[in-house]
Amino acid sequence: MHAVADAYCHFRSRHHYISSATRCLQLFLRERGSVPEGTTPPPLPGEIELDRFTEHLRRDRGLAANTVLAQTHQVRHFLAFLRFDAKNFQLSRLELERVEAFLHRKARTNSRLSMQHVVAAVRGFLRWEYTRGKLSRPLHRHIDGPRVYRLERLPKALPWSQVRALLDSIDRSTTRGLRDFSLLYLTAAYGLRSSELVRLTLDDFDWRKRILRVYQPKNKQVIPLPLTDEAAGVLIKYLRKARPVSRDRHLFLRFQAPAGSLAPAMVGDALERCRRASGLKLPPMGAHVLRHSFAVHLLRQGVAMKTIGDTLGHRDAGSTLVYLRLGIEDLREVSMPVPISTAIAKPSGSVVYRPRLRAAPFHRRLPKHFHSFLATDLQRFVQIKRTQGCAYRIEAVMLGRWDDFLHRRYPKSRQLRPEMFLNWTPELAHLTLNVQCAYLRVVRNFLQFHARDHTNTFIPDALNLPKTTPPPLPRLVLPDEMARVLEVAQRLPASTDNPLRAETFRLGLILLFCCGLRRNELLRLTLDHIDLEQSLIHIENTKFHKSRLVPLSPTVANEVAKYLRQRQQRKVSMNPKAFLLANGIHGTRHMLTTRS
Q1: Is there a single domain that holds both residue 180 and residue 277?
Q2: How many Å is the Cα radius of gyration of the chain?
Q3: Interior/surface letters 513-534, b for 16+ CB within 10 angstroms, e for the rest
Q4: 282 near 290, Cβ under 8 Å?
Q5: 3-state class of 313 per DSSP?
Q6: CA of 256: how far to CAs of 167, 261, 354, in Å?
Q7: Does any domain span residue 381?
Q8: Are residues 209 and 308 in the same domain?
Q9: Are 524 and 508 in contact (CB under 8 A)?
Q10: Residues 306 and 403 in one domain
Q11: Do 201 and 297 belong to one domain?
Q12: Contact between residue 46 and residue 79 where contact means Cβ atoms under 8 Å apart
């Protein structure tokens, strides 16, 4: 059985999951007497260091078992990236560039939310190594995590009619089907989490008092819930016909080996299995969608927010207020109708729209890459910002102008001096004050990054930078005035590229005025963002990476439906990814590119 030991030695530094399976096989064979004792290879340095860090997380920081497992998983990848098991590896020689290279690699396959956990794990590991004296520099202080905003994503929920249709479609003639139905029924009827559901035992039910006691591992509390007649009937039928005979007191058990209770992930597997067999047009989803659907169902029934929070086991009212974003019917009451004016003086002849043109100042064309003596650090800085999930396009152009200035004025310099920054500010005089402040702020952020490796770097005082001017007071447009604008937009002549030019401009103005959309939100709308059945617009990944639902009033919904019918009649692209405000028959450009 030396081949098993050799396989474990081969895979333990390459594929963790394969090595774990090989290790289980090795222990099984050892218990059967097939592998003699003492043939296990000695642990590698990376495994020893990882075991010490795991003990630190458990003993010193007191983290939960799942949190420890998640952090050690990321640190294991980090050590493998550093080739920690190589001979003569010393943490004292670890450079910040290697850490940044690892985070850049992880950013290729992780979102900003996932990268937040990766950075936290690596930062905690480096902090621990620095306190032990293994690192000569506090590298953990120089790692920036991605910026994540609260309430970025909308809770995913299904209409209650679709939840009922999904439950009714489950085949309950088999033991597995009856168990899956009972699982999903309790999830939908009580809003239970998967971890709470699989922990239910037969002792949690008080049949005489009709009470269900649910232990919540998230906040370590037990909440009593009323056991309804319908829920009791579902559970009694499951206990009599589907639950395997076992000494295990858990309510839901496996049908296949190994025997025992279900894992939380199996609830999602049961939901996906039932979704595919239902024939309903439902998107792939996790079990938490049923919990959200239950909360929204209570909200639409007029249940108080405090009651919803107590039912779901929320300690903070802010956790329950998230579902207010899905209260579409309440939001629909404040949506504005299309403005209509009674008397409009129609001008004679055709309307020709001629926008005023403003001459743009001359700018020197920038090179494609940084080329000053700060080029390497500038490229690192931009790459790190994009690793954190920022687009960083406009800021990269600003840094490109700073880099071009240094290359032109100080081609032979190799060190940053204060006069360089002071001599650059006059070149921004042609810009508005707010734009100047943006340039100076971006460059100052880079100089703070540059100072991590160059302690003598000049960093301008934030108090000495110019102050931005307050925004001008908004000009409120009255409904009667907007009606006149829509009438003029309706008479815009068609163009060769866009046969629906007037209708496109009219719809865009209606959505801006009646729905309160931002301009960039309007121009990025595609056809799959429009839901005419529910009269909704899905705004995705807008400012601060947030998403929201915008309900349409009946008149605005009619305008959108009318425009889509006109697109279909004129054979303009109806591809779901085509822009709503299309500038051509293919729908690949929005109206911002229209030459009016």
Answers
A1: yes
A2: 31
A3: bbbebeeebbbbbbbebbeeee
A4: no
A5: coil
A6: 24, 11, 74
A7: yes
A8: yes
A9: no
A10: no
A11: yes
A12: yes
pTM above 0.90, yes or no: no
Q: DSSP letters of 441-497? A: HHHHHHHHHHTTT-TT-----GGGSPPPPPPPPP-PPPHHHHHHHHHHHHTPPP-SS
Q: Would residue 335 count as lying in a domain?
A: no
Integer Cα distance of 383 and 503 in angstroms: 42
Q: How far is CA 205 from CA 195, 216, 235, 332, in A?
A: 17, 15, 10, 41
Do 203 and 131 have their domain in common? Answer: no
Element (H, E) at 530: strand 530-531
Q: For helices 394-409 and 375-387, give the axis angle rounded to 10 degrees.
A: 170
Nearest Cα to Cα of residue 308 among 114, 139, 300: 300
Mean pLDDT on 125-145: 91
pLDDT reported for residue 217? 83
Edge-to-edge strands, sheet with 211-216: 205-206, 211-216, 221-226
Same-domain status, 135 and 253: no
Tell whether 308 is covered by a domain: yes
**Cα 554 from Cα 389, distance rounded (Å):** 38
Say whether 396 sits in a helix, a strand or coil: helix
DSSP H or E stretch at residue 422: helix 418-424
CATH classification at residue 308: 1.10.443.10
The answer to whether residue 566 scores a pLDDT higher than 80 is yes
pLDDT over threshold 60, residue 593: no
pLDDT tens digits, one per residue of 311-326: 888 877 778 888 877 7
DSSP character for 392? -
Does 130 have pLDDT greater than 90? yes
The 3-state secondary structure of 541-556 reads: CCHHHCCEEEECCHHH
If asked whether residues 276 and 412 sit together in one domain, one would say: no
Q: Would you call 225 helix, strand, or coil by DSSP?
A: strand
- Spatial distance between the Cα atoms of 459 and 455, rounded to a whole number of angstroms: 10
Neighbour order of strands in the sheet with 536-539: 530-531, 536-539, 548-551
Write down the residue that tokens 């207020």 correspond to.
Answer: 321
Q: Is residue 84 situated within a structural domain?
A: yes
Residue 114: give the domain boundaries: 43-142
What value does the mean pLDDT of the chain take? Answer: 85
Distances (CA, A) of 451 to 233, 377, 381, 416: 68, 10, 12, 10
CA distance linking residue 578 with residue 587, whole number of Å? 5
Q: Which of 298, 326, 354 is the last residue of a domain?
A: 326
The predicted-structure confidence for 245-263, as pLDDT tens digits, reads as follows 888 999 999 887 777 888 8
Our count of domains for the chain comes to 4
Tell me the C-alpha distance between 538 and 528, whole Å.
Answer: 9
To 5 degrees, how large is the angle CA 380–CA 53–CA 47?
90
92 plus 54 within the same structural domain: yes
Q: Which residue reads 């190994």 in tokens? A: 258
CA distance 91 to 69: 23
